[in-house]
Amino acid sequence: MNRLSYLLLAGAVLIAAACNPAPQQQAPAASNLPQPHLEKRGPVTQLIVKGEPFLALASELRNSSASSPAYMEPLWANLKEGGMNTVLAVVTWEQVEPVEGQFDFTVVDEMIKAARAHDLKLAILWFGSWKNGMSSYHPVWVKKDNAKYPPALTKEGRKLPILSTLGMATAEADGKAYAAMMKHIKEIDAAEQTVIMIQMENEVGLHGYTRDYSPAANAAFAGPVPAELINWLTAHKDSLLPETMDAWKKSGCKTSGTWEEVFGKGDRTDEIFMAWNYASYMNKVSAAGKAEYDLPTFVNAWIVQPEDKRPGNYPSGGPQAQNHDIWRAGAPAIDILSPDIYLTDFPNILRMYARSGNPVFIPESHAGQGGAANAAFAIGEMGAIGYSPFGLESGATTPQNLTFAQFYKKAGCFSKEILKAQAEGRIHGTWVKALNPTRVKDEVVMGDYKVQFELVSSGRRNGGAPQRTGGTYAPDAQGYAIVIQDDADNFTFLGSNIRVVFQPREGKETVGLAKVVHGDFDAEGNWVPGRWLNGDEIQLRYDILPAIEENYSGQGLDFGRPSPEFIKVQLYKY
Question: 430-573 sits in which CATH class?
Fold first, then answer.
């Protein structure tokens, strides 16, 4: 093509472009894939995103971080580098509806845009009427109108900085704003499925008092227990939690009467009353949102602390473990009752919150080595759909969170195997700790084998091995493992600061290690074998005769470093 022809062609292209400007960006067309939802698969409930199980390796942002896209802009990369695939981020009622009836979704749009740019999913935290039991994220026009949007009152009639659960206009207004947001999210994100879950409010419950003493609350408390609650308790009488039955049986399980007539007088009745009212209020808000876009919805609990003596020391009526039956009765539009766990005995607390088939998700907890152990236990032993430490947007890649990020990255590459094993019931997790509480050994049974774990102290060989010969443990030592049974004799481990030995489930045979391979999973989830381990790498004890008397081979797996590692092992018996 000569120069003149080229110039003529270029000019024609420019003219055509000027006459036909690029179309404005449209929301992606709706997908034929099902929207994100929870689904029972085998013994666990899993989160399904774009038609496939999804393991949420998450972190929750600090309360105010997401309110400013500019503030968050340099921090999204930290979260991705820290191994997260999901971010829990706050959207507030006051920011979405600063003027009554006028909605502004800029913060939602910017959040979704940034998450997509960094290949991250979102769980949106709706801070409406309550946050940590207090009311501060509602709009100014709600704050100023106590007559229409009443606060809770003390017994002496003083106003609390907490919206009353009996404020029907408040629930309606909160639900209207929340539903508008959910409608908007569906319009811009149903095909992409960036937003995969919603948290309703945050750690609700009444501070300071066992119950609200506002006029509406006093009238409701003196009136009959709602038939909806009585009917639910009656229908589920054979499977109620002991905390529920203990309260109800004080009246001989009456099916009518006032709150005190049905549950007796005292703090526990006040707490049940508040739990019903919080659950009913939040059910209205959640149902309004689900009518627009039915995403999985959870609430989070400020759990009872060791120093708490009564409801009100912790937020009374929240979704604490002892209130789950009341919440299930009052809030069928809420799918998960989740604990925020910062206390040290993570396994036992989580077991309390997993009762009665409650799906497992931890929206707030620790990071660090202890957080990795928590996540491994939740995912491997409790079938969790995810785990989320708090406030890592600026700390995900710091030295104190190095081993946590390493765990998240390895679990992310391993997630397809984890999710498949969860659904097929062939996975376990263990959590071991030197102090507070002391739990240095654990055992699970898988197929024909007993799999026995013991804590390693800071990776030192004298830190205690599973050999019944004692050992010392550094006070801050913590270890964990996820183990999947690949077939009858083959197992895959992801572990840190732990050693593993094997015994037969029955009989006096000795279990040997036929083949041990250290390796890794690549980004696509494919196993990449590395060293074949033998000799010093698997010989945990040399007192062979006593070991044989105890049905041990003397060999085992050594994850004696804080950084997590994968090991595959084939077992045999002799």
Answer: mainly beta
